[in-house]
Specification:
- It is built from five helices and eight strands.
- By secondary structure, the chain is of the alpha/beta class.
- The protein has one domain: Collagenase (Catalytic Domain) (3-Layer(aba) Sandwich).
- The protein has a six-stranded mixed β-sheet with strand order 1-5-6-4-2-3.
- A hairpin with a 5-residue loop joins β5 and β6 (162-170).
- α3 packs across α4 (193-205).
- The protein starts with a helix and ends with a helix.
Length: 247
């Protein structure tokens, strides 16, 4: 009985000492913070209504709707400091040089570098999975339902503060890098890296997908096409949207 009594007394004194020293405080605080962090996932499909169709997707068509003023907001905002992203070059198995791949991704981020937004290439990474690990990742991997790409964004629901974004592009599709000339002058049968990444980066900065037909020439149109380059440059609605967040 005395042994049990002294054991209970020792445990009580130990816990009391930890509480007094504040050693349990950070754990409780971190738990509360993590509970406030939410994840939103954006899936970029090849065409309206296609979720299990042929991976190559439909072909780009030239239209002229880039001057519409449509945009949607996600509710978060990037920090004032530069957002550092990293590319996993080991997942590049498409015959694209790493230099060309880097330039395409860099250009995709710079398309949004307006209204004080700043992005920085943080170099290569070996990360392969989308997870809240402090790495803003761009990589190729497995995605659901033959999607073109998927972007994962973590943010604080209560404050709208952005935490992290990861973009995974479909490794089963054909990819290419083509300098912009006209909206549909990309490589036939392939998705253009800069074109798709510019759309995905729009989610990073806080813009939502648009699915109405009037928005089909905007960067944030929710469907993508092979041979498409029109998302390389922002439409009027895209510019209005980002300026409404970062005044």
């Amino acid at each position: 009985m005395k042994k049990q009594y002294y054991l209970k007394l020792f445990v009580c004194l130990l816990v009391g000492g930890l509480l007094f020293l504040g050693l349990t405080g950070p754990s409780a605080s971190a738990k509360n913070d993590n509970n406030d962090v939410k994840l939103r996932v954006f899936v970029h499909y090849p065409k309206p209504g296609l979720d299990k169709g042929k991976p190559q997707g439909p072909v780009c068509q030239i239209t002229a709707n880039e001057q519409v003023a449509n945009y949607g907001l996600t509710g978060w905002k990037l920090p004032d400091s530069a957002v550092v992203y990293k590319i996993n070059y080991n997942t590049n198995s498409f015959g694209i040089s790493n230099d060309s791949l880097k330039l395409a991704v860099d250009n995709a981020f710079q398309a949004w570098a307006t209204s004080g937004l700043s992005f920085q290439d943080g170099g290569a990474t070996g990360a392969v999975r989308a997870q809240n690990d402090g790495i803003n990742l761009v990589a190729w991997g497995s995605v659901p339902n033959n999607a073109i790409a998927v972007t994962y964004t973590w943010y604080y629901q209560n404050t709208g503060q952005w935490v992290e974004s990861d973009t995974i592009l479909n490794k089963k599709l054909k990819w290419a890098v083509t300098p912009y000339t006209t909206d549909c002058a990309g490589t036939a049968g392939a998705y253009d890296v800069q074109n798709i990444m510019t759309h995905e980066n729009g989610h990073w900065v806080g813009l939502d997908d648009l699915y109405d037909l009037a928005s089909r020439d905007l960067t944030m149109y929710g469907y993508g096409f092979t041979g498409e380059l029109k998302k390389d440059t922002l439409g009027w609605g895209d510019s209005l949207g980002v300026k409404s967040i970062y005044r």
